[in-house]
Amino acid sequence: MMKRKLIYLLPLLMLSSCSQPTYKTTSLPPEERAELLLKELTLEEKVSLMMDGAKPVERLGIKPYNWWNEALHGVARAGLATVFPQPIGMAASFSPEAVYGVFDAVSDEARAKNSYYASQGSYERYQGLTMWTPTVNIYRDPRWGRGIETYGEDPYLTSRMGVEVVKGLQGGNDGRYDKLHACAKHFAVHSGPEWNRHEFNAENIKPRDLYETYLPPFEALVKEGKVKEVMCAYNRFEGDPCCGSNRLLMQILRDEWGFDGIVLSDCGAIADFYNDRGHKTHPDAESASAAAVLSGTDLECGSSYKALVEAVKLGKIEEKAVDVAVKRLLTARFALGEMDEPDKVSWTKIPFSVVASAKHDSLALDIARKSMTLLMNKNDILPLKQGGLTVAVMGPNANDSVMQWGNYNGMPSHTVTILEGVRKALGADDKLIYEQGCGWVDRSLIQSAFNLCKSADGPGFSARYWNNVTREGEPVTTAQVATPFHFCTSGATVFAPGVNLTDFSATYNSVFTPEQSGEVVFEVYAYGSGRLRINGEEVKGFSNKHGGRKSTYNLRVQAGKPYNIELDFEYLRSDAQLNFDLGFRKEVDIKKSVAVVKDADVVIFVGGISPSLEGEEMGVNLPGFKKGDRTDIELPAVQREMIAALHRSGKKVIFVNCSGSPIGLEPETKECEAILQAWYPGQAGGTAVAEVLFGKYNPAGRLPVTFYRNVSQLPDFEDYDMSGRTYRYMTQEPLFPFGYGLSYTAFEYGQMVLDQNKINAGQTLELTVPVTNAGKRDGEEVVQVYLRKRDDTDGPNKTLRAFKRVNIPAGKTVNVDFELKDKELEWWDTATNTMRVCAGDYDIMVGGSSQTEDLLLYSFTIE
Predict the structure, then answer these.
(1) Helices 96-119 and 155-170: crossing angle, nearest 10°?
(2) Is domain 747-862 in CATH 1.10.8.60, yes or no?
């Protein structure tokens, strides 16, 4: 490591003795330094800097740099970190201020972790200063798996939340250096399907839909958030791959909006230009890479850009076009201080102790509370009354911490599951019964049989560890693992004494002798690589490079027959993780589970789905799911049947739904007494849920997406026309509307006051609405302002243009003020095909949800 550092420092010492300014002259602006360094580079060196894993240029003292880092809802895939709720849950808070606080904390953790890694001479993926978040695509269809990463279906809400994410992450400038760089993704008309995204063409997009729905969040992040990076999408837009779309990247992004930052490709998107399973719009890597750079894509996540050297030689692109992209990349690295000595950069002074700190834990709990969205509360059954209460907790998500982490996640120091949260909330006279009952989709559960494993050294598995990934030499230590594996190197916790935190491998051996015949499931959840062998035959391999992922293998076994089990594991990067268990699959017995909870006064059924079912281009093909997308939006059948059986038995069911997407809960509205939408609530989710259920916290979350009744209310998934989609264009009655959520108190709206009924373009419309808390407990109301142009029959029914989350004490009235400026008042102009302030008569609607009966309506005119 010392030798590597000297290699990078030697050119600095040589250059410091020169009187002429060089790219190492820190007093110069980043752009000038980039220009000076650019002149020193060969074409080959320039190209090597244009891929996410940028190579070092040792002769010039340029360190390696990996551009790929993630921070979707906390620093991701780099071990220990505070895990906040999934973005769709944070959107339900309708609190941009809280979202800013979350990402301000995330930026502190990211800087601290980067400083630590750099001090160790490590420049791996997920260790850098360029965070590829937020996702601000519009969640136009609830079947899209990656909708869980977004801030919902509304362009205005998404814009407001996305801007605060960027401001919190980027954190300003200390007078010389930027704190971090954020990235708006995926530009721009991109929201499923996942299964064909590498070849899908989003075509025939109406200009109105483009500028009114799909582009506004990106424009806001560029113009207001000053986001430093934009990631182009996998799919095509009007025939051209998004990462080669002159229309998107040059005309709109750079010319219309004035973006001068970095455009980077989604991972492998350039290869899609020419791959057989991709768009096949270009014949080879040289043509594809040249087209992408000429269209404005500066940085590739992938390796196709290696072909740029040959592309220049073939005349497909001039070197000066390459220079434009490389200068942007170098400017960003200088702006972050990544090219300079750490002690010169104030951000490196942020201590590692901020990571997963108590302060950040409290932020995770605060935003989880704010995200809780109460959808139904018959006869005010909630909050539950303690004292001699028998509570049954059931369902596949009740005791699942991994579900709560969402996707693109870090590793918290502790997760409060919903079961744990309920248990802690109960009083001394209360009783808890836990019965999982069923899984998400399968009609079977896994009952651990780890106790039937025995090695030569005792119960469980014998373990051998090497401090290399190839198992060279003798093991550095051996151990015995007597319980199901739960290994993770987060927080500098080694797998065993004497084993490295990084660059290690392990082999675990045992003999499993079943006492009964049947099907055994082997479950491996790993961040790393390895393989499972049974009786010497490899039956399952895994290599998870982007965070932990579960693998399973099913085996029919005979009672009394021994099975030799061997599990290999190798560290890949960041913090390693290995969970392992095996067990018999037992069929769900609904009648038996109902009998177990027969004495309960109330059943808290914690169901829904999981990030292992919905997400990015996954291998899931279960009933209702396809490649991470959903084909059906209803609750899986086995859960519906369990809830129905509980209802028939006379049980009062409180349904806690955990999902990142809208679920069609129409049957559950008849069979449950209350429904709480908990999203994927992060590390503190169990506490937040329990506080709502037992009345310690008054919920105020609001839906950032429409909850449809079923798929019959949805247009074709692959149709990007907004007609009939989301609350803005939907003509049918949804199950629960956008902006909807209940409280334990009641709010009443007084008469709204407009400062004027007629304004001119450029003027601000001011309005005030008095809101009274008419209940007996303090609460928060999300006051929402919608706009509609009266004579626009093709436009949205209504569209959100302002909102405030306001705390109102019991019995008090608060005057809530809004200012609607040009951006909030603009409308689609068919004459110019632009969004601008248009003359005409408008309705302005104010209330507690997008539902018409919840809104007060007033009119004004723009002259």
Answers:
(1) 40
(2) no
Classify domain 445-581 by CATH number.
Answer: 2.60.120.260
Task: Please tell me the predicted confidence (pLDDT) of residue 16.
Answer: 44
Strand pairing category for 765-773 and 813-820 = antiparallel
Q: In the prediction, which pLDDT does 18 show?
A: 46
Task: Note whether 352 and 112 are within 8 A (CB).
Answer: yes
Give the Cα separation of 338 and 348 in Å (integer): 10
Backbone angles phi, psi at 401, to 5 degrees: -75, -35
Q: What is the pLDDT of residue 113?
A: 96
SS3 for 680?
coil
Under 8 Å CB-to-CB from 392, ≥6 apart: which residues? 432, 433, 434, 435, 596, 597, 600, 602, 603, 604, 651
All residue ranges of the chain with pLDDT < 50 are: 1-7, 9-18
CA distances from 186 to 87, 154, 626, 680 (A): 15, 16, 21, 22
The predicted-structure confidence for 379-431, as pLDDT tens digits, reads as follows 999 999 999 999 999 999 999 998 999 999 988 989 999 999 999 999 999 99
Rounded Cα distance, 244 and 281, in Å:
10
Tell me, what's the pLDDT at 525?
Answer: 87
13: left (phi over 0), alpha (psi -120 to 50) or beta: alpha
Q: Are 552 and 534 in contact (CB under 8 A)?
A: no
Residues 6+ apart with CB under 8 A from 537: none
What is the CB neighbour count within 10 angstroms for residue 92? 30
CA distance 342 to 323: 27
Q: What is the CATH number of domain 2-70+175-345?
A: 3.20.20.300
Of the candidates 489, 544, 416, the one whose C-alpha atom is nearest the C-alpha of residue 83 is 416
Catalytic residues: 266, 614
SS3 helix, strand, coil % of the chain, rounded to 5? 30, 25, 45
| The three-state (H, E, C) secondary structure of 626-678, written as one string | ECCEECCCECCHHHHHHHHHHHHCCCCEEEEEECCCCCECHHHHHHCCEEEEC
> 747-755: long-range contacts at Cβ-Cβ below 8 A with a sequence spacing of 24 or more?
747/771, 747/772, 747/773, 747/774, 747/775, 747/779, 747/781, 747/808, 747/848, 748/772, 748/774, 749/846, 749/847, 749/848, 749/856, 750/813, 751/856, 752/844, 752/846, 752/856, 752/858, 754/844, 754/858, 754/860
pLDDT value for 488? 83
Domain 358-440+589-729 maps to which CATH number in 3.30.530.20, 3.40.50.2300, 3.40.50.1700, 3.40.50.150?
A: 3.40.50.1700
C-alpha to C-alpha distance for 228 and 459, rounded to whole angstroms: 55
Residue ranges of the domains in the chain? Answer: 2-70+175-345, 358-440+589-729, 445-581, 747-862
Which token pair is 101? 């606080």
| Contacts of 650 by beta carbon, 8 Å cutoff, 6+ apart | none
